[in-house]
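in:
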């Protein structure tokens, strides 16, 4: 990074002692954002918006700490728009109408576009969502939203149809390392080479979490300073982790769940039971674990052992009536069974193939021979309906396809 770039990051030295590290290092231009090349790079949606200077209403979807709010604000800044941040949980229809009036005034008086940014947009009620439809459709303001939930499941369909979904992924290890290098520069500190990897593992790609861990480790390093140059070590990072690990962190939640699933997939019973125990000891909701076991029973065991789904579902039902510590026995029963069961992803792969084809052929109708009783109703009401004695199970213009394939083939 050149000197101008460093100055843009650290320009207000008086605020350093007051500002959290994550806020101090927040990018001031899109060029300073680390990662997300799929949306920020050539051909990406954000890159296209900036180059064309034409706004689209967007919803940024992704885990915490992936830069949803930052990127939204920088788009507005770089295109010279008003940026009005709002929080869904404290937002009413009245506030939305007022923001709409101010946006119209900004257009009429200043000729300026307004970007309304709603954090946790998935928390909007249907009434709140409906109040956004008209101003977004009429171009009275541009709507940006941010959500950690699945937008296709959590945002009302009428509002979602007016938004372009931008998915953000957790940062990779090299990207986290790049930002930690900026953090070390900011504090004028050094760090051992192993610190990057350790913080990445602990943060799970959550940049905000990574910077918080780094900042606390820096404070720890100051406490044992033995030379003029502060060096952050694994010891500092692990001491921070010990202090903040009371209860399961967001990254630990996903990492340990992944470890459990991968151990079961490999039929490593003892490892799977260990990760089950870790999740339970650190406070994971047994119902969440049970839901993952139900998914695993169909996705990974599938047709190799149909009884697996029945057992997993029985354990999920048990979780609704039995709590800790007894439910650990039921969960262990299911985990051990799923580990030892045969594995088949044929049903999982089949539905994925079918969905891919279905998504490209939504214009094709159902053949007359398998439309069911609706044909008789249409005929009774005067519609001329011709049917054939031969049955065709795929749409007329789609050749029969094979989705369910034996894994031995």
């Amino acid at each position: 990074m050149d000197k101008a770039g460093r100055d843009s990051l650290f320009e207000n030295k008086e605020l350093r002692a007051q500002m959290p590290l994550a806020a101090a290092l927040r990018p001031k231009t899109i060029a300073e954002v680390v990662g997300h090349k799929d949306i920020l790079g050539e051909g990406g949606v954000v890159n296209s918006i900036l180059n064309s200077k034409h706004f689209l209403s967007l919803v940024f979807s992704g885990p915490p700490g992936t830069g949803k709010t930052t990127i939204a604000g920088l788009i507005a800044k770089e295109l010279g728009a008003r940026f009005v941040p709002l929080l869904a949980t404290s937002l009413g229809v009245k506030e939305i109408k007022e923001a709409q009036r101010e946006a119209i005034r900004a257009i009429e008086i200043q000729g300026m576009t307004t970007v309304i940014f709603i954090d946790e947009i998935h928390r909007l009620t249907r009434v709140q969502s409906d109040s956004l439809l008209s101003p977004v459709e009429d171009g009275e303001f541009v709507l940006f939203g941010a959500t950690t939930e699945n937008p296709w499941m959590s945002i009302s369909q009428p509002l979602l149809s007016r938004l372009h979904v931008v998915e953000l992924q957790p940062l990779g290890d090299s990207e986290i390392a790049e930002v930690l290098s900026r953090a070390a520069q900011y504090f004028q500190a050094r760090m051992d080479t192993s610190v990057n990897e350790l913080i990445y593992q602990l943060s799970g790609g959550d940049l905000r979490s990574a910077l918080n861990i780094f900042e606390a480790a820096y404070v720890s390093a100051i406490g044992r300073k033995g030379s003029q140059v502060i060096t952050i070590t694994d010891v500092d990072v692990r001491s921070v982790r010990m202090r903040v690990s009371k209860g399961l962190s967001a990254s630990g939640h996903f990492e340990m769940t992944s470890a459990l699933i991968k151990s079961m997939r490999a039929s490593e019973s003892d490892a799977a039971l260990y990760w089950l125990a870790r999740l339970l000891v650190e406070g994971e909701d047994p119902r969440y674990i049970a839901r993952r076991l139900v998914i695993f029973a169909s996705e990974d065991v599938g047709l190799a052992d149909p009884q697996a789904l029945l057992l997993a579902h029985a354990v999920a039902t048990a979780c609704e009536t039995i709590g800790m510590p007894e439910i650990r026995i039921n969960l262990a029963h299911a985990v051990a069974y799923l580990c030892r069961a045969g594995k088949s992803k044929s049903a999982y792969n089949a539905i994925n193939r079918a969905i891919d084809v279905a998504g490209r052929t939504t214009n094709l109708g159902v053949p007359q021979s398998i439309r069911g009783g609706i044909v008789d109703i249409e005929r009774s009401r005067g519609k001329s309906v011709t049917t054939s004695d031969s049955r065709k199970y795929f749409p007329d213009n789609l050749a029969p396809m094979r989705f369910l394939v034996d894994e031995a083939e």
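note: The chain has 20 helices and seven strands.
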